[in-house]
UniProtKB/TrEMBL annotation:
GO cellular component: cytoplasm
Compositionally biased intervals (Basic and acidic residues): 1-21
GO molecular function: glutathione transferase activity
Full protein name: Glutathione S-transferase family protein
Keywords from the named record: Transferase
Active site residues per record: C48, Y179
Lineage start: Bacteria, Bacillati, Actinomycetota, Actinomycetes, Propionibacteriales
Keyword Transferase tagged: yes
Keyword Transmembrane helix belongs to the record: no
Residue ranges annotated for the GST C-terminal domain, each copy included: 145-280
Length: 309
């Protein structure tokens, strides 16, 4: 899927860095919007792993007072995510019922999917960008002036090259890997996707046997990107997407690591297991035509001591 390539950058100028962990550079001719507190609204959904990243990074960096947050509900139809969690089903800042309205405000004939996360310019009501890897990248690099004093260094220079490689593997083999399993159209495609996913998860299990986080002793963007898939593994991907060799709870290092991150408010507060389950099991009628939402697993296990300190 092609995304709106616009970037919000310091002074509306050139970006600080030209990669976002996907192996592709931002288009050099992509429009640049200026960093400006109060000008933009992040529209996300706690159900969506890609949007979940943006919620976490915004909180980790302390950007809550400069970029407002609107949350869509967990289910949507073919047209758009909707604001059914808000009174009257209307976003209180943008005054719209559907995220689609923000896309159409800028592109009246927008031909692609209406996705979250999306950043919307409040004054015009039009979408600025929905290019999710660049949104979190730019929260760190371009909004630095507005970070809280103790904000973590999510892109440490000394490990950035290795981190790019780690994030690319996490993106292709894990973040996308669960979807490759879930939407496989043949047994052969599913078998291949399943093997790729568990090869990557075994590699991560081994990597986390010698370090607390993916890049060492401190949280980075790489951890944010892996966490949002791990948080959904047992609740959704294990059954719904047939990623069922093991549960996360049966992989000691990954499970302790996931609970370690979950204990941090920016991570744990961003997770709503009921919304996550409702999104996948209700929206994906081709996979789950009954739309029955499972009652388990018990989310209380996420509060057990992680022992990673």
């Amino acid at each position: 899927m092609d995304y709106i390539p616009d970037r919000i950058t310091a002074h509306g100028g050139e970006p600080v860095d030209d990669r976002a962990g996907t192996g592709k550079a931002s288009p050099s001719d992509a429009p640049r919007w200026p960093v400006e507190p109060g000008r933009y609204r992040l529209i996300a959904a706690k159900a969506c792993p890609w949007a979940n990243r943006a919620i976490i990074v915004r909180s980790l960096l302390g950007l809550e007072d400069v970029i407002s947050l609107g949350l869509a509900g967990p289910t949507h139809d073919k047209r758009s995510w909707t604001f059914d969690l808000d009174p009257g089903g209307v976003d209180p800042v943008l005054g719209i019922e559907r995220l689609q309205q923000a896309y159409f405000a800028r592109y009246p004939d927008y031909p692609r999917g209406i996705t979250v996360p999306a950043i919307v310019e409040i004054a015009s009501g039009g979408v600025v960008t929905n290019d999710f890897p660049w949104i979190t990248h730019d929260f760190f690099f371009e909004w630095r002036e507005h970070h809280r004093p103790d904000a973590p260094d999510l892109w440490p220079a000394e490990v950035r090259d290795e981190m790019e490689d780690v994030m690319k593997r996490v993106f292709t083999e894990v973040n996308n890997g669960v979807y490759r399993c879930g939407f496989a159209g043949s047994q052969e495609a599913y078998d291949d996707a399943y093997d790729r996913l568990w090869t990557a998860l075994d590699w991560l299990e081994d990597r986390l046997s010698t370090r607390r986080y993916l890049m060492g002793d401190a949280i980075t963007e790489a951890d944010v990107r892996l966490f949002t898939t791990l948080a959904r593994l047992d609740a959704v991907y294990h059954g719904h997407f047939k990623c069922n060799r093991q549960k996360l709870t049966e992989m000691p290092n990954l499970w302790g690591y996931a609970r370690d991150l979950y204990s941090i408010p920016a991570f744990g507060d961003s997770i709503d297991f009921e919304q996550i389950k409702k999104h996948y099991y209700v929206v994906h009628t081709d996979i789950n035509p009954t739309q029955i939402v499972p009652l388990g697993p018990d989310p209380a296990v996420w509060l057990e001591p992680h022992g990673r300190g």
